[in-house]
Amino acid sequence: MARTDRPTSLPLTGDADADRLLADDPLALLIGMVLDQQIPLERAFRAPMDLRDRLGGRLEAADIAARPPDELAAAFSAAPALHRYPSSMAGRVQQVCQVLVDRYGGDAAALWEGAADGGDLLARVAALPGFGDQKARIFVALLGKRLGVRPPGWEEASAPFGSPGTYHSVADVDSPEALARVREHKAALKAAAKAGGRG
Q1: CB-based contact 169:137 (threshold 8 Å)
Q2: Where are the beta strands (DSSP E) in the chain?
Q3: Residues 48, 64: contact at Cβ < 8 Å?
Q4: Which of 9, 27, 93, 132 is the most exposed place for a label (fewest CB within 10 A)?
């Protein structure tokens, strides 16, 4: 599927090199999305660059899938750890990479470039280990809003995260100011849920 408006950097980490890697390397972006839970998103999306450095300077799905699990877990656990739960997330990343090898020839970009439409793209992403419905929709929105991956129906498939002019998720982060607004939105949702739980 043709891409448009492809950026040279995705300003998610506060580190210029890490941000460039996210735009340049589809696997880095996908790994960042896998790790984006229970830790700050800057840390999650910087982790692919740190992992690349710990794995000898390359990120390849086939290489990660084939590594002994304890070796990959050690790479995640070395200080500073790449995630709050380094061993379990190392396993999750390895599972995702195995799916990429089995279904997409080890090419992360093939996950979305071969999608026929938004529904197909959402189904492909949702089939990855650790991608529930909301996480899958956010990633489809991220691909559409930030990388120009826009098969027919992508906005509907990623709703509500694909809607223009919103600050719902990482898909809307294109600046430090946008990140602050996304955080405000999430804090408001959390506060509302907490208040509802007391009612």
Answers
A1: no
A2: none
A3: no
A4: 132
Give the whole-angstrom CA distance, residue 48 versus residue 83: 11
* Band of pLDDT at residue 7, cut at 50, 70 and 90: confident
| Sequence-distant (≥ 6) Cβ neighbours of residue 31 within 8 angstroms | 47, 48, 51, 59, 93, 96
Examine residue 6 and state whether it is found in any structural domain, yes or no.
no
Alpha carbon 185 to its chain's center: 19
Task: Give the Cα separation of 175 and 192 in Å (integer).
Answer: 26
CATH of the domain at 108: 1.10.340.30
CB distance 148 to 3 below 8 Å: yes
| CA–CA gap between residue 157 and residue 26 (Å, rounded) | 20
Q: How many domains does the chain fold into?
A: 1
pTM greater than the 0.85 cutoff: yes
Residue 47, H or E segment = helix 41-54
7 lies in a domain? Answer: no
Residue-wise pLDDT tens digits, 63-90: 999 999 999 999 999 999 999 999 999 9
CB atoms within 10 A of CB 176: 10
